[in-house]
Amino acid sequence: MDGKRLGRSTCALLVAGGLAVGACSNGATRTPSTTRAPASSSPSGATAPVVLGGAVSVARSDVGHADLTRLPVGDTHIVRTPTVGGLDLCTTFPTNGPGATAQGPWFNGDGTYDLTKKTFVQGDVSWPDATFRQSVQGTNRVLVGNDLPIGHNTGTFPIAANDPAYRYDPGNRASIVANPYSIAIAATPKPAASPGCVAGEVGILLDGVILNSPVDARGRDAVAWEEQDRCFGHPNPVGYHFHSVSPCVSDPVTGPSGVVGFALDGYPITGHRGEGGKVLTNADLDECHGTTSTIQLDGRPVMTYHYVATWEFPYAVGCFHGTYTATGPVLKPAR
Questions:
Q1: pLDDT beyond 90 at 325
Q2: Is pLDDT above 90 for 95?
């Protein structure tokens, strides 16, 4: 669910659909397999994909040594001062909204959860009208889309009553709808004097889908609690969104990860792997969930700060490293 973010920024919200941009950067995507074969079916356990919930296959190179069976539930990692592994949640973010009503059997009962046992929303819905493009125009990077996913399908929403996921999240009756946006963020972002808190939306991934902060409308770890489809997405009344970096967004299968999206302060978001292909964890990152290294950006190597996807809460953005002062959500209620 979305909330309002009040803070600082070099970003400007533009009229939805009001810009004509040239360059397009959708990229090829890979949709997780729905094969239910166990990992042991691979000739080598070291290279076999990791299967989540019997439905989502994730490349072993994106998991590394991360223990997906004992991930910390982020409910207790919400902070008011930026902290490694924490989410600096804005005090303006509402935490009394709707959300999942029951803990699924993937909760271990000790403050951790088992992502390999999580139930995912069923369905395989395509979105041929999905659009997304980006271009650099002067000092701005312009992102234009309609919040429908490019290159991959979604689950069926609202969640069907006969879907096993309905048992744990019956209150989400939202449907996936097109919701156009046109946003300008800093093409060459600068660090803020001090980190900024985050609330509802934190970025946009290169499949055109909004990336929300990692909490639901009750202020809980949304990845652990809420029911999502095999691409880790689901809708609210505003639109389809993620709470972590989706495995359906394109990322090379070996070596360091590429850019998979942009935060609203302008800094890139990269996938799970750092230099040498090492899968990064919170311990490798700073209090905003980022690091500085050389990445491929706009077709050339650039030394820059960037946020990093991890399997651990807060998953992508823990606070804003750069300045961001837009008021309110990026996406308005869809008409």
A1: no
A2: no
What is d(CA 102, CA 85) in angstroms, rounded to the nearest whole number? 25
DSSP 8-66: --S-EE--TT-------------PPP-----GGGSS-TTTSPEEETTTEEE-GGGTTT-
Question: Is 22 exposed, middle or buried, given 0-12, 13-18 or 19+ CB atoms closer than 10 A?
Answer: exposed
Q: Given the DSSP bridges, would you call strands 50-52 and 140-145 parallel, antiparallel or unpaired? A: unpaired
Q: How many domains would you assign to the chain? A: 1
Structural domain containing residue 295: 1-28+74-335
Quick check: 270 and 310 in contact, CB under 8 A? no
Instruction: Specify the pairing of strand 50-52 against strand 233-235.
Output: unpaired
Asked whether residue 144 is domain-assigned, the answer is: yes
Give percent of the chain above pLDDT 90: 69
Give Cα 232 distance to the centre of its chain. 8
pLDDT in tens, 205-254: 999 999 999 999 899 999 999 999 999 999 998 899 999 999 999 887 77
Dump pLDDT digits (tens) for 11-69.
333 333 333 233 333 333 333 433 333 333 333 446 788 999 888 889 888 999 999 99
The pairing of beta strand 71-72 with beta strand 112-113 = antiparallel
* Beta-carbon contacts of residue 99 (< 8 Å; ≥ 6 apart): 1, 169, 171, 216, 217, 218, 220, 225, 226
- Please check whether residue 205 is in contact with residue 317, taking contact to mean a CB–CB distance below 8 angstroms: no
Domain annotation covers residue 57? no
Positive or negative CA dihedral for 220, 315, 133, 159? negative
How much of the chain exceeds pLDDT 70, in percent?
A: 84
Query: Cα–Cα distance between 273 and 292 in angstroms, integer?
Result: 13
Kindly state whether residue 59 falls inside one of the protein's structural domains: no
Q: Tell me the two tokens of residue 98.
A: 């709707």
Q: What is the pTM of this model?
A: 0.85
In degrees to the nearest 10, what's the CA dihedral of 252, 255, 256, 259? Answer: -10
Say if 69 falls within a structural domain: no
